[in-house]
Automatic annotation (TrEMBL), chain A:
GO terms for cellular component: cytoskeleton; cytosol; plasma membrane. The lineage of its organism: Eukaryota, Metazoa, Chordata, Craniata, Vertebrata. This is Ras association (RalGDS/AF-6) and pleckstrin homology domains 1. The gene is RAPH1. It is a peripheral membrane protein. InterPro entries: GRB/APBB1IP, PH-like_dom_sf, PH_APBB1IP, PH_domain, RA_dom, Ubiquitin-like_domsf. Residues 1-27, 108-161, 204-272, 594-628 are annotated as: Disordered. Residues 233-247, 606-621 have a biased composition (Polar residues).
UniProtKB/TrEMBL annotation, chain B:
PROSITE patterns: PH_DOMAIN (PS50003). The gene is FERMT3. It comes from the Eukaryota. This is FERM domain containing kindlin 3b. It comes from Oncorhynchus kisutch (Coho salmon). Keywords: Cell adhesion, Signal. InterPro entries: Band_41_domain, FERM_2, FERM_central, Kindlin/fermitin, Kindlin_2_N, PH-like_dom_sf, PH_domain, PH_Kindlin/fermitin. PANTHER family: FERMITIN 2-RELATED, FERMITIN FAMILY HOMOLOG 3. The keyword Signal applies. Pfam families: FERM_M, Kindlin_2_N, PH. GO terms for biological process: cell-matrix adhesion; integrin activation; integrin-mediated signaling pathway; leukocyte cell-cell adhesion; platelet aggregation; regulation of cell-cell adhesion mediated by integrin.
C-alpha cells in the first residue's frame, strides 16, 4: 500500500510529518490486530484451533513500540491476552461483537472519505452500504468510487463545498443504516486486513521511534486527514513510487487506493490556497463572517443557507468525535463468582455502567450496587464513586494486573446518606434519627455554600515506611487534607503537620493487613495515587481501633475529596431506584442515560482518539465489516450469565479489562 | 400614665410652654419655646415649632428626640400626654438621618448619611441598599476596637470618602448604570468610591498588619462580639452620635444566595472580611491553608489591578440575540479549525538543552545535560540535538504528575520537581533550566501536561505569563517599595506568625507552589474559592462569648455557629459539648437575672449567664441564625423583617 511507501520516504525528511506517519503506523497495527482477530474467530467458528497459536507468535510485536506509548501497548496486549484465553467461547464471541461494533463505527466515519470520491453520484452512498459479498466486488466498488471522483476532480470549488453536504448526509445516513452496512462480507474483511497486518509489522519495526507522540494528537486530526487525503502525498515526490509495496502484498484494494491518491494531487494545490477554509468553501465562510452577530431574522436566504451548512458541519464533527470514543472491553465479576463481559466507552461514568449492568442482570435496583476495584497485589479495594469515569480508572491498571472489577451490592457505599448522623456529627456511638432530621442534616452539610467536612479526629495507627511496625498518631481531617499533631504539641491548627493532601490520592479499604503487615487490628485503610499498583513508599497505611472509626474516616475522606458530588451521586442513585419500580418510566430513564453520555468531555476526546481517527479511513478502504445481526446475537449472548463450568473464576488468573480499543 | 378621660379633658384646657432645642440652628441658639396643651399630638408640636423657627426648608426628615429618656418621639399621632411629656422634658428637634463614619470590611472608611431613628436592623438595610449589598440581614454594625496608639495610627487610617451627598434611591433594587447603581454614577468621585467598594484592595504592608489589633486569646476573640449593636433599637438610643465611627461587618456566617452577577460589592467585602480574619489570626488555619490563602490573595490582587471591569462585565447572555451571536462566533471558530488541525499535526513543541537529575538512582551523579523535547503531554530526551530524530533515551508521560517549582531567583536556580505516578510508586525527577524564560515555558508545559492538556491548549501563554510575573515578584527587593503591582511582598499575604517564621526567600517559593493551582481562576472564581476554603475551616463561623453555665463555677466559652452551639473549655480550648439548633425546642431569656435558658429535645436543658457580652447579643445571635435558616425555604426575595424582630427582639419587641 502506498502509505507504507510514504513512510519509507518519510524517513529521510523526518520532522513535520511525524504525527501523520505515526498515526498510520498505529492505524496499521490496529488494522493488523483487527485482522488477526477476525481470522481467529473465523477459524474458531470453523473449529480449527491451530490459528489460536497465531496470536502468541505476534506477541513480540508489542516490544517494538515505545514504552511511553502506554495506551497502545496496553490495547495490543489485551487483545492478545484475550486471544490466549480463547478457550472461553462466549467471551471471545462477545469480544468479537464489541470489536465488530467498533469496526462498524469506524467504517461509518470512513465513508465520507469515499463519498468525496463519488461526488455527483447521489445514489452511491446507499450503493456502497450494501455492497455484494466477496472480495472481487469489493475492489470493484472502490474502483467505481475513485472513478466517480476522477470525473469530478476537474471541478473548481464546488466539489469541496458540496462535499460537505455529502459528508453530513452520509454521516447521518450511515449512522441510521448500521444494519445495512453490517451486511458486508466478513470474508473479504478478514483477508484484506490480514495483509495489512504484515505491513504493519514491518512499519512498526521500521519506525517505532516515531510512534511516540501519536496518542495525543487531537481527534480533529483525523477529520483533517480525511478532508485532505492527499496530505501524505506531499512528502512523496512520485506518488507512483507508492507501488513499491512489500513483496508478497496481495492487497486487492491497493491499486485502487493509489489511484485515489494520485487523483487528488491537482486538487491539492488549490486546496492549499484555500487552507483557511479547507472544509468550508470560500463563499460560505465569507458569508458566515459577515453574518456573525446578526440576529437570525435579518439574514438573507443565502446567509441562512450558509448558516445551515455550518450547522450541518458541526453536527458532522460531533458525529465524528462520537465515533472515535475510546472503548474498553471489561470483565465484571459478580458475587456468585460468575462474570460478565461488557464494553464501556471512555465517556461513561460509573453510574452509567452500573445502570446498564442493572438493566441487564435483573438483580433489582438497589442504590447499593457498586463497582468495586480490588487490587489483589496490595490487598486493598475501593468502591468506585458514581461520577468517576470508569475507563480512566481502569487505565491505571497494569497490563499484567491481577486486579478485579466486582459488581456487587455494598451497603457501605451510601450508608453515609442513609444514616448521616453516624458520620457527620463526630459522635462516638451509633444512634437513630428521624428521617426529617436526617434530611435536614444532609441539606445542611452538603447544600450550603461550602461542604462541611465532618470533624474527624483521633488516634490512628500509622504503618512505618518499609516496616511492619505501626505507630500511634493523633490525626485530624480537614477540608484541605489529613493532618497529625506533632509530638509535644497541642492540636491548634497552626501547629498541625500535613500528612496528606487529598487531591491526588484515593482512599482504599485494606484487607487482612493483620497478617500481611502485622497491623494491630483488621480495620485498615490505605491512601495512594490511583496509578500506583505495586508496593511503594508512596502508599500510606492507617489502622483504626474499630470498624466504626474506619467507616467514619473513609467517609470523611470521601466527603473532603468529593464534596457535594457525593450527595448528588446518591440522589441520582435513589432516583434511579425509584424509577425502576415504575416500569413505564424505566425505558425512558435508560434512554436518558444514553443521551446524556453523548455530551462528551472535550479534553478526553481530543487526546485519546487520534489513532482510531486514521484507522478509520484505512479500515474503510479495506472495507471490512460484519453482519450486524450476527453481531447483535453474539452480543446479547454475552449477556447471559455464563454457567459455572464455563467460567471457573477462582482459578482464572486475569479477569480484568480484557481489551482496550481506540 | 393613663389618666381618666374626664381628668385629661380638664387638664387639656391648660396651655403650657414646651421648649425644644432645634439642632439645625446650632448648639448656641436658644431653644424655641412653643405653647402647647397636653392633648396636642406630636405632629402638632412639630408644626408649631417649624412655624416659629421661621426657617424655610425641608423639615420632613426631622423628628423629636427626648434626650433625657433617650428615645424618639416618632408616633406623631400620639399626644404629649400619652407620651408622658411635661414642661421639663428636654426635647431636641433633629434630623433622623445623620452622617456616620462607617468602616467597611475592606478597611475603607465612608462617611454617609444613615438613619439614626429606626432600629439598627433598618439602618443596616439602608446602608446596604446604598452600597448595593444584597442580603443585608447578614450584616450588622459594631463599635470599633479602641486603638491604643491612636495618635500614630490616625494619619494613615483616616482617609474618608464622603458619600453624604449621594441621594438615596427609593427603588428596592437599584437599577444599574454602567455596571454600577445609578446613584453612584452621578459623579466621577462617587464612581471611584464604588470601584473601591467592588474591587478588592491591594495587599497591605506587612508592617501595617503587624500594627493592627490581633486577638491573642479566646477571651480576646470573645470580647469582639460584645461590640455588636442591638438590632432592635436605634443608633441614637444606643448612644451613637453624629459622625461617630462604626464598623459594618458580616455578622451571620451563612451567606445565602451568593450570585457574582449581582453581588460585586457583597462578594468583595465578604472576601475582605475573610482575608482580614485570616491575616489577623482571628481564625486559625494550618500552614498549607495559609499558603493557599496567600496564593489566592496574590492572584486576586493581580487580577483586580489588571482587569477592574471583570466583575461587572460578566458575560450575561440575557437575550437570544447575544446567544446567537455567540454561536456564530463559535462556528466562526470552527471555521478556522482546520488551521488548528494543521497546527496540531505539527503540534507545538518545546526543544532545548536542559539538565535532568533523578534522585532515586543509586549513582551519585548530579544533573546531566540532554536535549529535551516537550511534545503533547510528555517529555523525551536525547543525547544531543542531532540525535533527536532517533529513539529518545527516555520518554516521560506527565499526565497526572505533580509539578512543583524548586526556584531560587537570587541563586539563579530554576528547577522543576516532577513527581510522576507509575504503578511502582512515584518517580521523582528534577529538571534544571538555565534561565527564567526557559523555566517559565517548560514549567507551564509541565503544569498543563499534568492536567492532561497539551501545549496547544489556549491557556499555555497565560500560564507562562503568570509564572513569569511570579518570578519577577521574587526578584524585586522587598525593601524598595514601589507602587508596582508585581512587587507585592509575600509577607503581606500571610499572617504575622508566618511572616516571622519564614524569610521571604522561603515563603515565596511555597506560595508560588500553591499559586500554580489557582493561577487560572477568573477573578470571581478566585474570590469564591477563597471564601469556600475559608468556610471549610473547622473554626469558621464560630462567634465566641464567655459565659458561666448554671451550676458551674468557672467561666466557659460558648461558640455560636450557624447550626449549633458549642461549649468550649476555656483552659484547654477543647470542645466539651455541642447542641444543634435542629434539636432545639425553645429558648428563653430571663432579662431580670440576664440568663439564657435553652431546652433541647430529649429533656436537655441548659442555662447560662453571659460574661463578656450582653445576653441580648447572645439572644440575637441565636435568633438571628434561626431566622437565617428560614430563608432558604421561602424562595422569595422579600425580607421578613417582622420575623427577624420576633426572633431577635427580646422583651423590647413585645
Amino acid at each position: 500500500m502506498e502509505q507504507l511507501s510514504d513512510e519509507d520516504l518519510d524517513h529521510t525528511d523526518g520532522g513535520e510529518e511525524d504525527s501523520d506517519k505515526e498515526d498510520q503506523d498505529l492505524d496499521k497495527m490496529f488494522g493488523a490486530w483487527l485482522g488477526e482477530l477476525d481470522k481467529l474467530t473465523q477459524s474458531l467458528d470453523d473449529g480449527r484451533p491451530e490459528t489460536v497459536q497465531k496470536a502468541p507468535q505476534k506477541a513480540p510485536l508489542r516490544q517494538e513500540t515505545n514504552m511511553a506509548n502506554f495506551c497502545n501497548r496496553f490495547s495490543m496486549y489485551n487483545i492478545n491476552e484475550a486471544l490466549n484465553k480463547g478457550g472461553e467461547g462466549v467471551d471471545l464471541d462477545s469480544l468479537m461483537a464489541d470489536l465488530c461494533s467498533i469496526e462498524q463505527e469506524l467504517s461509518t466515519i470512513g465513508k465520507p472519505n469515499s463519498g468525496k470520491n463519488r461526488l455527483g453520484v447521489p445514489g452511491d452512498a446507499k450503493l456502497r452500504q450494501k455492497p455484494p459479498a466477496g472480495r472481487g466486488t469489493k475492489g470493484h466498488g472502490g474502483a467505481g468510487g475513485s472513478g466517480g471522483g476522477t470525473s469530478s476532480s476537474g471541478g473548481t470549488r464546488r466539489p469541496l463545498a458540496s462535499n460537505l453536504d455529502d459528508i453530513t448526509a452520509q454521516l447521518e445516513q450511515a449512522s441510521l443504516s448500521m444494519d445495512e452496512a453490517g451486511r458486508q462480507s466478513s470474508h473479504s474483511l478478514a483477508s484484506s486486513v490480514g495483509t495489512v497486518s504484515e505491513h504493519a509489522v514491518r512499519s512498526i519495526s521500521q519506525s517505532s521511534w516515531s510512534s511516540v507522540n501519536s496518542a495525543s494528537a487531537s481527534s480533529m486530526d483525523s477529520l483533517d486527514s480525511y478532508l485532505r487525503p492527499s496530505e501524505q502525498d506531499g512528502a512523496t515526490p512520485t506518488p507512483q513510487g507508492s507501488n513499491q509495496g512489500p513483496p508478497g502484498s496481495t492487497e486487492v484494494g491497493q491499486p485502487v487506493k493509489n489511484k485515489h491518491h494520485c487523483k487528488y494531487n491537482p486538487e491539492r494545490e488549490r486546496e492549499r490556497e484555500r487552507e483557511m477554509h479547507s472544509y468550508l468553501d470560500w463563499e460560505t465562510s465569507l458569508i458566515l463572517q459577515n453574518i456573525a452577530g446578526k440576529p437570525s431574522h435579518l439574514l438573507t436566504k443565502e446567509e441562512q443557507v450558509a448558516k445551515k451548512k455550518a450547522e450541518k458541519i458541526r453536527v458532522a464533527l460531533e458525529k465524528i468525535k462520537e465515533a472515535q470514543v475510546k472503548k474498553l472491553v471489561i470483565r465484571v465479576h459478580l458475587s456468585d463468582e460468575s462474570s460478565k463481559t461488557m464494553m464501556v466507552d471512555e465517556r461513561q461514568t460509573v453510574r452509567q455502567v452500573l445502570d446498564s449492568l442493572l438493566d441487564k442482570s435483573h438483580c433489582g435496583y438497589s442504590p447499593d450496587w457498586s463497582l468495586v476495584e480490588t487490587i489483589n497485589e496490595l490487598q486493598m479495594e475501593r468502591i468506585f464513586e458514581d461520577h468517576e469515569n470508569l475507563v480512566d480508572s481502569l487505565l491505571n491498571w497494569t497490563r499484567d494486573s491481577q486486579n478485579r472489577l466486582m459488581f456487587i451490592e455494598r451497603i457501605e457505599k451510601y450508608a453515609l446518606f442513609k444514616n448521616p448522623q453516624n458520620y457527620l456529627l463526630g459522635r462516638k456511638e451509633t444512634c437513630e434519627m428521624a428521617d426529617r432530621n436526617k434530611e435536614a442534616l444532609l441539606e445542611e452539610c452538603f447544600c450550603g455554600s461550602s461542604v462541611s467536612v465532618p470533624e474527624m479526629e483521633g488516634v490512628l495507627w500509622l504503618k512505618e515506611d518499609g516496616k511492619k511496625s505501626w505507630k500511634k498518631r493523633y490525626f485530624l481531617l480537614r477540608a484541605s487534607g489529613i493532618y497529625y499533631v506533632p509530638k509535644g504539641k497541642a492540636k491548634a491548627s497552626r501547629d498541625l503537620v500535613c500528612f496528606l493532601q487529598l487531591d491526588h490520592v484515593n482512599v482504599y479499604y485494606g484487607q487482612d493487613y493483620r497478617s500481611k503487615y502485622k497491623a494491630p487490628t483488621d480495620y485498615c485503610l490505605a491512601l495512594k495515587h490511583p496509578q500506583i499498583q505495586k508496593k511503594s513508599q508512596y502508599i500510606k497505611y492507617l489502622c483504626c481501633d474499630d470498624v466504626r472509626t474506619l467507616h467514619q474516616w473513609i467517609n470523611g475522606i470521601r466527603i473532603a475529596k468529593y464534596g457535594k458530588t457525593l450527595y448528588v451521586n446518591y440522589q441520582e442513585a435513589m432516583k434511579r431506584t425509584e424509577a425502576a419500580y415504575d416500569w413505564s418510566s424505566l425505558s425512558s430513564s435508560s434512554i436518558k442515560s444514553g443521551s446524556s453520555s453523548s455530551s462528551l468531555p472535550e479534553s478526553q476526546s481530543t487526546h485519546c482518539s487520534s489513532d482510531s481517527g486514521v484507522a478509520v479511513s484505512e479500515n474503510n478502504l479495506s472495507g471490512h465489516s460484519r453482519s450486524q445481526s450476527q453481531v447483535s446475537s453474539i452480543f446479547s449472548e454475552a449477556w447471559k450469565r455464563g454457567t459455572q463450568d464455563e467460567v471457573p473464576p477462582v482459578l482464572t488468573p486475569s479477569p480484568y479489562p480484557v481489551t482496550c480499543l481506540y | 400614665l393613663f389618666l381618666s378621660p374626664s381628668i385629661s379633658l380638664s387638664l387639656s384646657m391648660a396651655a403650657w410652654d414646651l421648649s425644644v432645642a432645634v439642632e439645625d440652628l446650632g448648639t448656641d441658639a436658644p431653644p424655641i419655646t412653643v405653647s402647647v396643651t397636653s392633648d396636642l399630638h406630636i405632629g402638632g408640636v412639630i408644626l408649631k415649632l417649624v412655624e416659629k423657627s421661621q426657617v424655610k426648608r425641608d423639615w420632613s426628615d426631622h423628628a423629636l428626640w427626648w434626650e433625657q429618656k433617650q428615645q424618639w418621639l416618632l408616633r406623631t399621632a400620639w399626644t404629649l400626654e400619652k407620651c408622658g411629656i411635661q414642661a421639663d422634658a428636654g426635647l431636641i428637634f433633629m434630623p433622623q438621618h445623620k452622617p456616620l463614619r462607617l468602616g467597611l470590611p475592606n478597611g475603607l472608611n465612608l462617611r454617609l448619611r444613615v438613619c439614626f431613628s429606626g432600629p439598627v436592623f433598618r439602618t443596616v438595610l439602608g446602608i446596604c441598599k446604598m452600597l448595593n449589598i444584597r442580603r443585608p440581614e447578614e450584616l450588622s454594625l459594631l463599635r470599633p476596637v479602641e486603638e491604643k496608639k491612636r495618635k500614630k495610627v490616625r494619619d494613615l487610617s483616616e482617609e474618608l470618602y464622603d458619600l453624604t451627598e449621594v441621594p438615596l434611591t427609593s427603588v428596592s433594587r437599584p437599577c444599574l448604570y454602567n455596571g454600577m447603581p445609578a446613584h453612584f454614577a452621578d459623579s466621577p468621585k462617587t464612581e471611584k468610591v464604588y470601584k473601591m467598594l467592588s474591587v478588592s484592595q491591594p495587599a497591605p504592608a506587612p508592617e501595617a498588619i503587624a500594627k493592627l489589633y490581633r486577638p491573642a486569646s479566646v477571651v480576646d476573640k470573645a470580647h469582639i462580639h460584645s461590640r455588636w449593636l442591638d438590632s432592635s433599637r436605634s443608633l441614637m438610643e444606643q448612644g451613637v452620635q453624629e459622625n461617630d465611627r462604626l464598623w459594618l461587618r458580616f455578622k451571620y456566617y451563612c451567606f445565602h444566595d451568593l450570585e457574582p452577577k449581582y453581588d460585586a460589592v457583597r462578594l468583595t467585602q465578604m472576601y475582605e472580611q475573610a482575608r482580614w480574619a485570616i491575616l489577623l489570626e482571628d481564625i486559625d488555619c494550618t500552614e498549607e491553608e495559609m499558603l493557599l490563602f496567600g496564593a489566592i490573595q496574590y492572584h486576586i490582587n493581580k487580577l483586580s489591578l489588571s482587569e477592574p471591569q471583570t466583575m461587572t462585565s460578566s458575560p450575561a447572555m440575557d437575550d437570544l440575540d447575544s446567544a446567537l451571536q455567540c454561536l456564530e462566533v463559535k462556528l466562526d471558530g470552527a471555521n478556522s479549525s482546520p488551521q488548528d488541525m494543521l497546527e496540531n499535526l505539527t503540534a507545538p513543541e518545546l526543544n532545548d538543552y536542559l539538565k535532568i537529575f533523578r534522585p532515586k538512582r543509586l549513582t551519585l551523579k548530579g544533573y546531566k545535560q540532554y536535549w529535551f523535547k516537550f511534545k503533547d503531554a510528555s517529555i523525551s530526551y536525547y543525547k544531543s540535538k542531532e540525535e533527536s530524530l532517533g529513539e529518545p533515551i527516555q520518554q516521560i508521560n506527565l499526565k497526572g504528575c505533580e509539578a512543583a517549582p524548586d526556584v531560587n531567583v537570587a541563586g539563579q536556580k530554576f528547577c522543576i520537581k516532577l513527581l510522576i505516578p507509575a504503578p511502582e510508586g512515584m518517580n521523582e525527577v528534577y529538571l534544571r533550566c538555565e534561565n527564567e524564560e526557559q523555566y517559565s515555558s517548560w514549567m507551564a508545559a509541565c503544569r498543563l501536561a499534568s492536567k492532561g492538556k497539551s501545549l496547544a491548549d489556549s491557556s499555555f501563554q497565560s500560564e507562562v505569563q503568570s509564572i513569569r510575573s511570579f518570578l519577577a515578584m521574587q526578584q524585586t527587593n522587598p525593601n524598595t517599595h514601589t507602587d508596582d503591582s508585581m512587587s507585592i511582598n509575600t509577607h503581606s499575604l500571610v499572617s504575622p506568625r508566618y511572616s516571622k517564621k519564614y524569610k521571604a526567600k522561603q515563603l515565596t517559593p511555597r506560595i508560588l507552589e500553591a499559586y500554580q493551582n489557582v493561577a487560572q481562576l477568573s477573578l470571581t472564581d478566585a474570590l469564591l474559592r477563597f471564601l469556600q476554603i475559608w468556610q471549610a475551616l473547622p473554626d469558621f463561623g464560630i462567634s465566641l462569648v464567655v459565659v458561666r453555665f448554671k451550676g458551674s463555677r468557672k467561666d466557659e466559652v460558648l461558640g455560636i455557629t450557624p447550626n449549633r452551639l458549642i461549649r468550649i473549655d476555656l483552659g484547654v480550648g477543647e470542645v466539651v459539648k455541642t447542641w444543634r439548633y435542629n434539636n432545639m425546642r425553645q429558648w428563653n431569656v430571663n432579662w431580670d437575672i440576664r440568663q439564657v435558658a435553652i431546652e433541647f429535645d430529649g429533656n436537655v436543658n441548659i442555662a447560662f449567664s453571659c460574661v463578656t457580652a450582653d445576653c441580648k447579643i447572645v439572644h440575637e445571635f441565636i435568633g438571628g441564625y434561626i431566622f437565617m435558616s428560614t430563608r432558604s425555604r421561602e424562595q422569595s426575595d422579600t425580607l421578613n423583617e417582622e420575623l427577624f424582630h420576633k426572633l431577635t427582639g427580646g422583651h423590647e419587641a413585645l
